[in-house]
């Protein structure tokens, strides 16, 4: 069973990461496929992400998932709030019975350094330089910051977000052996909202999530 990582945040909110080693038929036998995904690997990622949801909560009603105009999946009665992310051979999901959630996973690659100006404001880059994050490489740090903003984007779920203008880094709290890093941001789409995003690095994979 290729369960890569699992974290039960509390009795109401859980997340997990699956390392995809199965073929498509494994997931199709367990996951109702309503959305047509033409690319074979993207379809595999899509199925694996949904497969995780009833793994987190056995009564998760997969067949009732709907797709909003913004392409965000949701349950009409909000029996569970949930978010899905995937990259490479990994799929991640978070589900909560009582909170809105967002999750993102990213592979740490050199590409992130080439696009940092697209998601980080100049003031944010100066702010981050003053933080004690010397234990992380530049690629690890940039990947974490991107994943922070992407998880906020997924939590919001309504699209039309400028990562540089609408999601601003404010502060951070170092992690411990028992707790991941925490990044504080201000999300300002309609009115300012303060959010805390948890981040951890798992080998070459960054995981970020929030639940409020």
State Rg.
Answer: 17 Å
Task: Name the structural class.
Answer: alpha+beta
- Shape summary: globular
How many DSSP H or I helices? 7
Unreliable residue stretches: none
Summarize model confidence as the mean pLDDT: 94
Strand content: 25-35%
Fraction in helix: 25-40%
- What strand order characterises the main sheet? 7-11-10-9-8
Spatial separation of the terminal alpha carbons? 31 Å
Major pleated sheet = 5 strands, antiparallel
Give me the count of strands. Answer: 11
Order of helices and strands: EEHHEEEEEHHHHHEEEE
Describe the structure.
- Strands 7-11-10-9-8 form a 5-stranded antiparallel beta sheet.
- Helices cover 29% and strands 34% of the residues.
- The longest helix is centred in the last third of the chain and has 19 residues.
- The model has no long low-confidence stretch (mean pLDDT 94).
